[in-house]
Amino acid sequence: MKKLHPAWVAFGVTFLTLMAMAGFRSAPSVLIVPLEDAFGWSRSTISLALSINVLLYGLTAPFAAALMERFGIKHVVMAALSVVASGALGTVWMSKPWHLIALWGVVVGVGTGSMALVFAASIANRWFIQRKGIVLGALTAAAATGQLIFLPGLSSLAVHHGWKWVSITVAAAAFSMVPIVAIFLKERPSSAGVSPYGAPADYVEPPIIKRHAGRQAILVLRQASREKDFWYLVGSFFVCGLSTSGLVGTHFIPAAHDHGMAEVTAASLMALIGVFDVIGTIFSGHLTDKIDPRKLLFFYYFLRGLSLFLLPSILFSTLHASTLVFIIFYGLDWVATVPPTVVLCRRVLGLEHGTVVYGWVFAAHQIGGSIAAFGAAVLRVKFGNYSSAFYISGILCIVTSYFVLQIGKAKEKALAA
Q: How many CB atoms lie within 10 A of CB 37?
């Protein structure tokens, strides 16, 4: 048998870690209704904590990418897992809304953000020369796989045993991942005595430069902000976060509950989105290696916008064929945007700064998600339903599908001239 390249071991550990992180990220969506019932807090108050969680999940990402360069991926991920576990466990003793905001909003938000998708991008960039697109697709799909595994179980725990068991389960899962990362994750290919997967015979590993993490993140932001393509990517990923994790990821279960659907059924549908997300994202990674990523993003955003326009009319108290069609279609498109976006981020300032550039673009993703997580709750309180939130998000996705085609056009014209 041909010996397994250590890059695939790094891939496997990263996949497991991101899959567990998806469980931590999906937990708040099953807590909205139980916390309403347990404490009498309003949906907008609970959603404020979730909004802060989503926001910090993104804002931490570029600094986490720089920290990984300075202190090592392994140490940052282990610290992040410990922070998540401590924050989730602390919610067991909360009694006031600000406790939820501080623990699940701030602590868990910072912890999950310190892993986030910059972890996937860092591993793919360090360990793979070939298969990078499909590796990014698979690691992105790990989030969907975690959602698939955790959501129905967490929802059942909340309904049958109380919301506190959700927090305890998340804390236990986070703590359990720490020794796995410590033992099996190698820092870089040279640590395992190999070159990256698919590297040519004359490959030379880039030198390790210990930069100040915060200064490096800000410096890259300053340089990238001078590039028009960076702002196209920031705007498109802002809409991506608004239309996925912020809106559907946070409010699909409460929206379905408003229409009379059982919470466990709605959570199972979200998990089903995760099934098709795995397929769609891995396939998107494969396509990113072969097709212009701008064209892929055009189709992803345009089709997502159309599906959001349909969502308010297909939510029923019981399962209908139209609801399942939406779940399949939306699931295939959920985070398919990630592989082409990561590739385009590497073109802004080059491969050396690609991960930190993606960290800032991902921060915009989570700012959009944060606005949707809170804004959709406010619209629901004002109008009694989520329809307006779905329609606004759908319009923004269709507008974004035009702008992603403009990425790189200025440079192409300059080269042609």
A: 11
Checking if the pLDDT of 262 tops 70, the result is yes
Q: Nearest CA to 141 among 286, 324, 295, 327? A: 286
For residue 76, the surrounding DSSP H or E stretch is helix 73-90
Instruction: At 396, list the tokens.
Output: 């923004």
Q: Where are the domains of the chain?
A: 6-189+212-416
- Is the pLDDT at 344 greater than 90? The verdict is no
Sign of CA dihedral 317, 320, 325, 327: positive
pLDDT digits (tens, 9 = 90+) for 346-385: 777 776 677 778 878 888 887 888 888 888 888 888 888 8
Q: Which residues of 140-179 are buried (b: 16+ CB within 10 A; e: fewer)?
A: bbbbbbbbbbbbbbbbbbbbeeebbebbbbbbebbbebbe
- Count of all residues that appear for the chain in the document: 417
Q: Which amino acid is at 204?
A: V
SS3 197: strand
Question: 3.30.390.10, 3.10.20.30, 1.20.1250.20, 2.160.20.10: which CATH number matches 6-189+212-416?
Answer: 1.20.1250.20
CA 20-26-27 angle, to 5 degrees, is 95
Torsion of CA 340, 331, 57, 90, to 10 degrees: -150
In three-state secondary structure terms, 128 is strand
pLDDT, tens digit (0-9, with 9 covering 90-100), for 9-55: 889 998 888 888 777 776 777 777 788 888 888 877 887 887 788 77
Confidence of residue 193 (pLDDT cuts 50, 70, 90): confident
